[in-house]
Design brief:
single chain, alpha/beta, 37% helix
Amino acid sequence: MAKVRVGVIGLGNMGRPIAENLLRAGFPTTVFDLRPKAMDALRKAGAQAAASPAEAARQSEVLFLVVPDSRAVRQALFGRNGAARGAPQGSLIVDMTTGDPQYS
């Protein structure tokens, strides 16, 4: 049985371990971070590095946002090349950010 394709946007203190665990569990994982270096180790572990949040969303059925705050969520979703532009119909976006609930 094929595993769900997942994406992780934001590879800081929480996002990187989440992506690592998904990879260890065998999930095809696409990652994106504003810092290209943050994607390097995950690429070596088998993740696909995306050039933008839109590309990460396009490659994922479930997309995790693990960014610093509500402003970053808005940018990751609706900014230039945001995930909302690439998310296929029926995909799921999970906001794991500690932010203002009204924005989530």
